[in-house]
Amino acid sequence: MRHGKKFNHLGRKKPHREAMLANMACSLIEHKRVSTTVAKAKALRLYVEPLITKSKTDTTHSRRVVFSYLKDKHAVTELFREISTKIADRPGGYTRILKTGFRLGDNAQMCFIELVDYNENMLKDSSAKKTTRRRRGGAKKTETVATDAKATTDEVVEEVKEAKAKKEAAPKAEAKKAEKKDDSKDDKKAE
User: Fold this and answer.
1) Which parts of the chain are beta strand (E)?
2) Using the 8-state DSSP alphabet, how is residue 117 labeled?
3) pLDDT > 60? residue 85
4) With 53 labelled, which of 70, 127, 153, 177 sits at a CA distance of 20 to 30 A?
5) pLDDT tens digits, residue range 92-140?
6) In angstroms, rounded to a whole number, what is the distance separating the alpha carbons of residues 86 and 56?
C-alpha cells in the first residue's frame, strides 16, 4: 500500500529515478538551465534545492552528503565554489520553472528549469522596472515615473523636430528638381 506516499514516481523504479535526477541535477548545476518536461522539472526542484541549501555551509560533511546524491566531483566543486557564493543571501527558491509549450511527439508539457540568480535577462528587467501604483486624482507620483516621463517627452520633442526638418527640406528639394527640369527644357529649346 502507498498511503501517504505522494511524490511522483515518473514511471520508473527507484534506482532509475534517482540516477536520472542526479544526472539532471548535475546538468542543471553545470549549465544553469535545462529543458525538460514539467513533471521531471518539479521532481528535480524537490531534489536539487535541499542540495543547494546544503552547499551554503562549506564543510567536509556537507560536501560528502551532496556528493552522495550527485556522484560527480565537478558538479560538487562548481556548486560549492560558484553557486553557493551567488545564492548565499537567498533564503530558498533557487530554481525557476518556465513553461515553453508542448512536445510534438507525445504532447508532453515542456519547460525550462533554471537557477534564479543566473538568468541575466530577467535580472536586468526586474532591476530596470520599478512598478508604481496608479492613483486617482492629482496624487503625488514617484521620482522614477517623473524621470521616465521626462525622458519620453524629450524623445518625442526630438522626433517632432526631426519631422519638421524633413518637411521643410522636402519642398526645397522639389523646387530644385523643378528648376533642373526647367533648365533642361530651355537647353532643348535652344538647340
Assistant:
1) 33-37, 95-102, 109-115
2) G
3) yes
4) 127
5) 999 999 999 999 999 999 999 999 999 888 777 766 666 677 777 655 5
6) 10
What is the pLDDT at residue 5? Answer: 85
Cβ proximity of 46 and 113 under 8 Å: no
Using DSSP, state whether 141 is helix, strand or coil.
coil
Q: Which three cell numbers stand for residue 71?
A: 556522484
In this structure, are residues 52 and 98 in contact, taking their beta carbons and an 8 Å threshold? no
> Max Cα separation, the chain?
110
Give the tens place of pLDDT for each residue, 6-50: 889 999 999 999 999 999 999 999 999 999 999 999 999 999 999
* Inter-residue contact 76 to 70 (CB < 8 Å): yes
Look at residues 89, 90, 87, 113 and name the one whose alpha carbon lies nearest to residue 100.
Answer: 113
28-39 burial: b if 16+ Cβ within 10 Å, else e? bbeebebebbee
Rounded Cα distance, 187 and 63, in Å: 93
Q: What is the DSSP letter of 154?
A: H
3-state helix, strand, coil in the chain (%, to 5): 65, 10, 25
Side-chain half-sphere of 50: how many Cα atoms within 13 Å?
Answer: 10
**Residue 64, C-alpha cell as written in the block:** 560528502
Distance CA 110, CA 125 (A): 24
Is residue 22 exposed (0-12), middle (13-18) or buried (19+ Cβ within 10 Å)? buried
